[in-house]
Amino acid sequence: MVARRRKRAAGRAEEGVPSPPGYTAIPIKFSEKQQASHYLYAREHRVREGTKSSWPPKRTLFILNVPPYCTEESLSHLLSSCGPIQSVELQEKPDLAEVPKEPRSKFFNPKPVPGFQVGYIVFQKRGGVLAALALQGPLLVSTESHPVKSGIHKWICDYADSVLDPEALQEEVDTFMVTYDKKMDEEEAKAKEEEGVPDEEGWVKVTRRGRRAVLPRTEAANLRVLEKEKRKRARKELLNFYAWQHRESKMEHLAQLRKKFEEDKQRIELMRAQRKFRPY
Predict the structure, then answer these.
(1) pTM greater than the 0.85 cutoff
(2) Where does the record place the region Disordered (predicted)?
(3) I want to staple 61 with a disulfide (CB 3.0 to 4.6 A). Which of 38, 121, 212, 219 is the partner?
(4) Degrees to nearest 5, angle at CA 109 with 105 and 114
(5) Greatest CA span in the chain, whole angstroms?
């Protein structure tokens, strides 16, 4: 009896699913064993007129309410029947403005969002977006051909992925540094070109360039820096030596004063014994 009521309630929910205005509800299930459906809310990605977006227009599908167990790979598999997919990206919140996209790194990316996410699916053709909005479902996230790991199996995979490959990490660091040095050289060359050139209002930007030149990365410069550090270290050691000598002289002076005090005490005792000590 209880099972029948649950099936009837699930059927009524799937017949008329409330969704936000302008969105299409796409039912999904984690596996065939799951009875209730979860709903993704999708629409074509649009921005206000005059606002630029980092996602290509008319080919990007924007999805809300993406569950934590739904990865980028599984989301790509769910929508693969709609057409060839160019890229899939999950985020914590939507992009409201144009943001320069840097290449993603598997080593330095932040940790995945533990809760629900939003997704951007870029198709190669506009027909993929229209086909995705016409999906009926329910779609299965985890199937025999494309299983999605959960529970302790997922924890084991996450731990295995957390162990970094030193060679791959070094290769990515080298690539990043080459790109960074190239970017800095371009910015420096641009600053040199604009130096001393007045802007539209006739103002000239004054910089500190030339007062203190950047230290060149040469072997001679490195040797000069090492020699300078060596002289500073020797001067510090000399000062410490004089301080140690000063402390030794103080200790010797105190020892002499104690010795003289003991001698005076013995002389006074001797004079008292001979009745020659007259302090007044």
Answers:
(1) no
(2) 1-24
(3) 121
(4) 135
(5) 127
